[in-house]
Design brief:
20% of the residues lie in helices and 26% in strands. It is built from five helices and 15 strands. α2 runs parallel beside α3.
């Protein structure tokens, strides 16, 4: 059981035995503007030519040269890492002890849920991934699968444990000058809206959840929304003012329809 103790005098949070800087201790060098146009691509031949403000790209598969190519024309970049699930093809897969690897993610071969109670184990791994993001020149990080508390992971993950993990991730990102998003996990927006710098959502249109972002958008923060072609919202959905939306293939290749 992970114990979280706020060391107010020291200005630190002790999370899983680790001293973690507060989420806004350093702060990011850049945060996305609300309404920014974006592309998200994780598979296929990378198309860097789109006239958009922001690219969301895989942190391991994208090279520093590709990030620099985008930066040269003023495009900002967000680095994808899988913070809540183990992937059996990643170069750092051997760093995960078997004890933190849980049940498979339904429909995603080679992925298993992680025990986010074990911040002491996971945060150093994720921090190393963020180091790579920063070294490659990314501006922000997009940690995926941070909703294990509501999934069948094989572990007992409480709502508070999930929040603790997201706070720890935010602190690590901000310490590296990176902005950080909240991926899905709509139910915890009220608790985490002030911790993260933007949000990435999949299918709020398909599930009629986009209005859950009203307060987050009202605070001035960006929301990047992805709907999938052929799903329940294969056309641009009705959505709150300020939300940025694209229609994509499930494979997240170069295909893109802007809303």
């Amino acid at each position: 059981m992970i114990r979280v103790v706020l060391a107010l005098l020291a200005g630190l949070a002790l999370v899983g035995g680790l001293a973690v800087s507060p989420a806004h201790a350093a702060g990011p060098k850049w945060v996305p503007e609300q309404g920014s146009s974006f592309q998200i691509q994780y598979s296929g031949r990378l198309d860097l030519s789109l006239p958009v403000d922001v690219y969301l790209l895989d942190g391991e598969d994208t090279t520093a040269a590709q990030v620099a190519q985008l930066k040269a024309r003023g495009v900002r970049t967000v680095c994808y890492i899988n913070a809540g699930a183990y992937e059996n093809w990643r170069s750092d897969k051997s760093k995960f002890p078997r004890s933190v690897i849980g049940k498979p993610l339904d429909g995603w071969d080679g992925e298993n849920w992680l025990d986010v109670n074990r911040i002491d184990v996971l945060l150093p791994i994720m921090s190393a991934r963020m180091d790579v993001c920063a070294q490659k020149g990314f501006d922000a990080v997009d940690p995926d699968n941070t909703d294990g508390w509501s999934q069948n992971t094989g572990f007992r993950i409480s709502k508070q444990a999930q929040i603790n993990y997201q706070i720890a991730l935010a602190g690590a990102a901000h310490d590296r000058g990176l902005a950080i998003g909240l991926k899905n996990d709509v139910e915890q927006l009220p608790q985490l809206g002030s911790v993260v710098d933007f949000a990435v959502n999949e299918e709020c249109g398909a599930y009629n959840e986009c209005d859950a972002y009203n307060d987050f958008l009202a605070s001035g923060k960006a929301v990047f929304n992805i709907e999938y072609e052929g799903d329940r919202a294969s056309v641009c959905p009705g959505r709150p003012d300020g939300m940025s939306t694209v229609i994509k293939h499930w494979s997240l290749d170069a295909y893109r329809v802007a809303c």
